[in-house]
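Handoff note, outgoing to incoming analyst
You'll be picking up this chain. Sequence as last confirmed:
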Amino acid sequence: MNELTLKFPPLGGVEGFIAESEGYQLLGTLYTPPKDGKKPAALVLHGLPGFEKNYDIAMALRDRGCFALIFHYRGCWGSKGRYSFLGIPDDVRAALTALLRRQDVDPERVWVVGHSMGGFAALASSALDQRIKATISIAAPGDFKTMPPPDETRLTGVVKFLSGVTVKGVVRQWRALGEKYNPVDLVDEISPRPILVIQGEQDAVVPAVQAQEIYRHAKQPKELYMIKGADHVFTKNRRELVEKVCGWAEQKGML
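Most recent structure output, in case you need it:
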């Protein structure tokens, strides 16, 4: 057989992932555990625009026998369409639906872990979708009515990685979230499913008070975990972050 006609063997432990939301394809990577029965699955949701995608969390979950999906909302990182904060919960729902079509995913152990704006996505989606059985919010905005949007300088760099949105558009969408999908107004709907709120004490992007407000408005079972000295992306605290995520998920029966 000619060498050029040989088929590549399947990659071990990782697959491409495509879901459809509102007619647009959402692209992602699915980290896959060994195939020996139904497995838990986590959606690992990135922020704005998603420079930190938390691959270390996804790989650690795979190593513990859990599917871990990192996908990209409409209008970012190759997914088609116009980027929209208000569309993110719909995109999470679409990705979740596609993931649950797999026969090797245990629907009773499907959960979400989101960082920054991905934390918003995790909270809002969990409040709206009972298929999500547990929620981890990491360094997430909690109240869009009280927390101002990022400054123009930062947003100018951010929108370069997004499609169909301007700096002014991001600011408008940020304010609209306070009216429709404000986490502190929704988080009590997650109970009785468990929620973990993780926050870095030295976060200069999302103030620690935001995590405290999420926790205050949530109902039991809930936990607030502060990581001493950690910045917004947990630069020097990744091991503690990963261990907390995995340990909590195991404790709650999600691994």
